[in-house]
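## retry 2 of 3
previous attempt timed out at serialization; input unchanged, resubmitting
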Amino acid sequence: MSSKSKIQNFKRQTVLHKGQRTRLPGVYVAPEDVSIWDIIKPNLGKDFSRFTVPVFMNEPLSFLQRLSENVQYNYLLEMAAKCEDDLERAEYVAAFALATVSANHKRLSKPFNPLLLETFELERNGVRFLAEQVSHHPPISAVYAESDEFTVEGTVEPTLGFWMTKLIANPHAHLKLTFKKTGETYSWSAPKCAIYNVIMGKMYMNFTSHMKIESSGQYNTVFSFENKGYFTQKGGDVHVEGHIFDGKNKIKALYGNWTLFLASCDPNDFKTHRKEYVQQFNDSVVEKDQGPVLAGSKILWVANQIPKLFDEQFHFTNFTLSLNEMHSGMAEKIAPTDSRRRRDMKALEEGKNEEAEEFKHKYEEQQRVRRARKVGNVPMWFAKDDEGHWSYKGDYWSRDYSNCLDVFDTSDNNNSNSKSNSASASLDED
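## retry succeeded, writing output
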């Protein structure tokens, strides 16, 4: 084996937010433990983003909450904003873009479809995040996040299709990052993915497309996920590699494990030693928290430590475990449209599947009634601009929600939600 690279053990930080829970009360049902084919078969030829699955096959999160997982590694953007060197800034932006997909590892359960006008907010680590479901058919979620250094805005319009024995998911997630001090922008779209063995066998997922990060400045980045390295039906292909370009010239190589780490190095060094590196990657990836690092490389990102019960709790990270908590005092503060108020999700995470199904059906029926009456069909916090893009209108954080629709009938459950988590922390965590 070439001496140019060596196996490194990555020390992953355990990041917990003040007072958060470290496990869910319910029990996870693995998708392969049920007959997904019996559910998919009647829906062949239909738009899979619109068909309904039994509630126990969902994960206890709204799709809007899942989008907020991007905030987990916002420190990379804070570091990028402080970089005087344009190339170094591009490296950290690339690391952030890759880190945003890391939470997809082994996540094979479907999040709850948001109701029209449903929202989710998060204030954490100096960042304010807001998402709103601005369209139901087709499903479109608009997002906005802001810190002192940057803004991130975009839309997600997911589609799901079936081909042979696999599901093809295209998030159609288009994000734009703007640094406030310089006005420099970076834009990218999340990669497509495929879920295999949906009829029988152990299910796993792979990303199946490139991810290109385009800058208004000098440097662009392209990541590739297409079976470049280690492959196993137990976990799919976790290898990722790419390059930062100056025009058509490769000036930095990027490589790593999209569930664990990302490093950068000289592109000629990576090209010369790639064969040996991939072999080392294949040998090391079966071990916990290991990967090969080429001499002279810069480690840009290491994923946070996952919970001990990761495989038993929907493969949620510690960050994800905290998203549906209703802390003491939060019920009086957040909008009546916030995802945390969904009683179907709360019931599911407590293992009360029948109750979850009842509330889910109730919400969907009420939405159909509103649509028929043409009530509650205009988004509150986002509006289409002249180019047809959804843009944040402002004012959400003034917390005047008097004109918000009470889509979850919160009047009868505020007290029970807040009391059940009275020992937890406040909304503004860390």
